[in-house]
Amino acid sequence: MEKRESYLLNRWKAEAIERMTELFNKGTSETEKLKGKSRANVEFGRKIVLTESEESLIICNQVEEGNPADKILLVPTVRKSIKVPKKVATDRGFYSSKNEREIQDLKVKHVAIPKPGKKSEKRVKHERQHWFKRLI
């Protein structure tokens, strides 16, 4: 029974990925890859921003043309939420002190965006807090 469930789950996952690829690749132009993984020499011309709930359900999505910086996508994505989230966590690509301030101004209780590069002692302490580590 476990083998059958595993097979079905993997099959459904593959079908979902295929459908998403078809949906978002329509009319997408290929662009030469300038950086990133060396094994791929082509990138597609759209960026998809997905917002997940704590249960890992996709609750919001947006498709951006080209390859805009993650930093400029974060605050509009949080504002687009139906209700203000209690917690926001992203990877370091979304970091900017302005983003942190703006999201906190929206009354988000915990904002966990790791700062790239060299960090001050105060920042290191901030990122070592239990809630911050748990969100990341």
Keywords:
alpha+beta; single chain; two-stranded antiparallel sheet; 136 residues; globular; two-stranded antiparallel ribbon; 5 helices
Topology overview:
Blueprint: H1 2-25, E1 30-32, E2 42-44, E3 46-52, E4 58-65, H2 74-79, E5 87-89, H3 97-105, E6 110-112, H4 121-127, H5 130-135
Parallel strand pairs: 5-6
Antiparallel strand pairs: 1-2, 3-4
Number of distinct helices: 5
* Averaged pLDDT: 79
> Largest sheet at a glance?
2 strands, antiparallel
Strand content: 15-25%
| Straight-line N-to-C gap | 35 Å
- The strand order across the widest sheet is 1-2
| Order of helix and strand elements from N to C terminus | HEEEEHEHEHH
Radius of gyration: 18 Å
Tally the beta strands.
6
Proportion of helical residues:
25-40%
Shape descriptor reads globular
Which quaternary structure do these chains form?
single chain
Catalogue the unreliable spans: 29-36
Decide which structural class fits the backbone: alpha+beta
